[in-house]
Every structure is written in C-alpha cells, then in structure tokens.
Amino acid sequence: MTLEIDIEAPWPAGTDWADLAEGALEALQQAAPELGNPRLIASVLFTSDAEVHVLNREWRAKDKPTNVLSFPMLERADLLDLAPDGPPEMLGDIALAHETCTREAAEKGVCVEHHAAHLIVHGLLHLAGHDHEISDADAEAMEALETKALAILGIADPYGDRT
C-alpha cells in the first residue's frame, strides 16, 4: 500500500509525521496482511480539530471534532479479493485532529507520537472494513490487530488497563 500524506498546521514540524504514518502502516501490514497489496492507496491528513469538526459534521452528521475520521472507498470483500496486479485502488482517507490527539495523549499519559500511531492504525483498520461498533467480538478483533501492530512498533497496549 502507498500512503499519500498531507501534514497541515498545527502539527509541529519537530516530528516526522510522514515517517510515523509509514511506520504504522508497515507494522499494521504484519498484523493485517491484506493491507500489503501494492495496488492500494490511502490518504492520511494530519489536520486541526476545526477541519475534522467540519468533516465530521458534513459526512457523519456529528457536530464535533473527533480524534480520527475514516472514509473507506472499498468494501472489505473487494479488498480481500483484490489481485496484486492491476491499476491502483483507493482504499480510502483518514484525517487526524491535532488538538484532540494531543489532549487524549496527555490524558492517557502517552506521547503524542504513540497516540497518533495508534490512531493511524485504527483508521487504516476502519478503511480495511473493520468496525468496533458492530459487536463486542468485532471490537475485540479490531483491538487485537491494533495491539499487535503497536507491539511491533514498541508501543504499549492502549487497551491493557481495561477490566
């Protein structure tokens, strides 16, 4: 998969956000090999809460910002059936909100880079057709994939403190 990455203010220049996104994808491909198809393209937008708020209101009828939005463009069955040869296929878009990501990282006591990596993994799994809101079993399966990818990156299990 190829990532098309756009980094807007207020994401600080001190971190290589594009490298972080690529690393998150590489780790996730080990946990979810269907995302390794070379035909796939996904866009990752690092943006502000204000921009994510607009997108969330326009596309999901939710009038508030959120940490990450995912806009899938392929059905899961089509992703799984996609041959490795052929023209590029757009998997979808994700958008991360800086202020929400930064606030959540502070609340969780983790660095913003680790939380952003988690949100990228989470968003890409949504693009791949995973959905934690369908059932507890689906949520557990998605969390297991996230945890596996994050472990590859050396990032602690974000769900480890749940009882």
Automatic annotation (TrEMBL):
Keywords assigned: Cytoplasm, Endonuclease, Hydrolase, Metal-binding, Nuclease, Ribosome biogenesis, rRNA processing, Zinc
Needed cofactors: Zn(2+)
Q: What is its main location?
A: cytoplasm
Cellular localization per UniProt: Cytoplasm
User: Which class of enzymes does this protein belong to?
Assistant: hydrolase
What the entry lists under InterPro entries is as follows: MetalPrtase_cat_dom_sf_prd (IPR023091), YbeY (IPR002036), YbeY_CS (IPR020549)
Copy out the cofactor comment. Answer: Binds 1 zinc ion.
Entry EC number(s): 3.1.-.-
Keyword Metal-binding assigned to the entry: answer is yes
* Annotated binding of Zn(2+), by residue: H122, H126, H132
Pfam families for the chain? YbeY
What Gene3D superfamilies does this protein's entry cite? Metalloproteases ('zincins'), catalytic domain
Similarity comment: family membership: Belongs to the endoribonuclease YbeY family.
Q: What does this protein do?
A: Single strand-specific metallo-endoribonuclease involved in late-stage 70S ribosome quality control and in maturation of the 3' terminus of the 16S rRNA.
The protein's name is Endoribonuclease YbeY
Gene name as annotated: ybeY
